[in-house]
Amino acid sequence: QVQVVESGGGLVQAGGSLRLSCAASGRTFSSYAMGWFRQAPGKERDFVAGISWSGGRTYMADSAKGRFTVSRANTKNTVYLQMNSLKPEDTAVYYCAARASDLYSGSYSDRSEYPYWGQGTQVTVSS
Question: Distance of alpha carbon 115 from its chain centroid, rounded?
Fold first, then answer.
C-alpha cells in the first residue's frame, strides 16, 4: 500500500508556471505507476498525465501536451508535474494517484485503474 500527498499548487497568472509534487510513502514506490488528474468545479475528474514505474514511459492528455511534463525521482519517492504556459482553463484541483505495476495494466487515463489517491492541491490560473 502507498499513501500520496500533493503539494505545489497555488495562484498564478496566465502564462506562468507551477511545479506540482507528489510525495509517496512506502518502500515499494519504485514499483508503482503514477498518474495526475484534475477536477474543475462541476466537472469530471480528468486525466492529465501518467508515468510508468521506471519513468521510461509517459502519457499526456491532449490538453497538456507541449505545456506539461511529468517526471519522477524514485530515490525521493516523488513524482512531479511541471506546468508551463498555464491557462485559466487549467484551474482545478490536481490529484496524484498510484497503482501497483504488477496488478494494473490498463490505460493510464482510466481513473478506476488507480486505487490510491491524494487529497489534491488547488491550482488557480488568473487571466
Answer: 14
112: amino acid identity, one letter = S
pLDDT tens digits, one per residue of 50-106: 999 999 999 999 999 999 999 999 999 999 999 999 999 999 999 999 998 878 888
CA atoms of 23 and 51, how far apart (whole Å) = 14
7, 20 in Cβ contact below 8 A?
yes
Q: Give the DSSP letter of residue 76.
A: G
CA–CA dist 58, 53 (Å, integer): 10
Could you give the percent of the chain with pLDDT greater than 70? 100
Residues 4, 95: contact at Cβ < 8 Å? no
pLDDT digits (tens, 9 = 90+) for 6-58: 999 999 999 999 999 999 997 788 889 999 999 999 999 999 999 999 999 99
Amino acid identity at 85: S
Find residue 46's DSSP bridge partners. Answer: 38
